[in-house]
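Project standup — Tuesday

K.O.: blocked on the structure for the chain from last sprint. Re-posting the sequence here as requested.
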Amino acid sequence: MSDHPSIALIGECMIELRELHHGGLSRGYGGDVLNTSVYLSRLMGADATIRFTTLLGEDPFSLEMLTTWESEGINCDTVGRLTGRNAGLYFVRTDKIGERTFHYWRGQSAAREIMGSDWADLRAHAMGSDWIYLSGITLAILDDPGRERLLSELAVARKRGTHIAFDGNFRPTLWTAPADAAPWHSQVWDLSALALAGVEDEATVFGDATPEASLDRLRDHGITEIVIKRGPQSVLLHADAANQYIEVIPVGNVIDTTAAGDSFNAGYMAARLKNRAPAEAAHIGAMLAAEVIQHPGAVIPPSYMPTLL
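H.V.: unblocked you, prediction finished:
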């Protein structure tokens, strides 16, 4: 690993409206890749350059986002501002066991235009990073030409030595059917050095019957480091040409499972970037996720961040 790695995380951030128990609303910001960016920045501190790559609108909420990211230590030199567009919005409810339901208003989200020709220089800067991280939602918000352009640029970056990490996060409302997502996900898996996969996402998109089937399929893509996240069950890890199951800490006080996988990914990547072994990295990712799900919202206050590295 580089002494000071750079990681570009490509995705979308939206306004988050959360229903409170008394019927009111709280406002925040979130998005799967953005959540990972924040937690990764907190864990890496000055030891890495963490840049979030996206487009924002010119609305006041977009400006608030930008200010917040900078305060979190995220490098915003690959964040563009698009005239005539706004930040997307989502509404989230959580049930008694912390499971959440989302409703989205993202049709005018500026991030959907990130692969446009006007932003080629911005993307080139991001693609020059040591690592690039993206998710299935990054793919889902783009149109087909945008996905093709993204894949082409990722392929060029990989040839230059950039490592690609992918979480095949699947949102049914963003695709006509899982089968439409499968070929796009497959092409990103072909380019990936690190797989951070959710067992339910892989089963839905590819029809895998077991976590082990997902792992075998991802190995067929030539990926040598694979993490299969299984919620409260043990993590299935493939690294150093061997498989192992990493136990997850039970959590009795689950408040909100939003960003559980996103925070796990940040913990895992931060540990690996700091040269920790894959099994230890999985433990660290699980410990961060365990803390995150005991608080409401995607991003917990910095004061609740556990000391992990």
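K.O.: great, moving the ticket to review. The mean pLDDT is 94. The first helix runs from residue 32 to 44.
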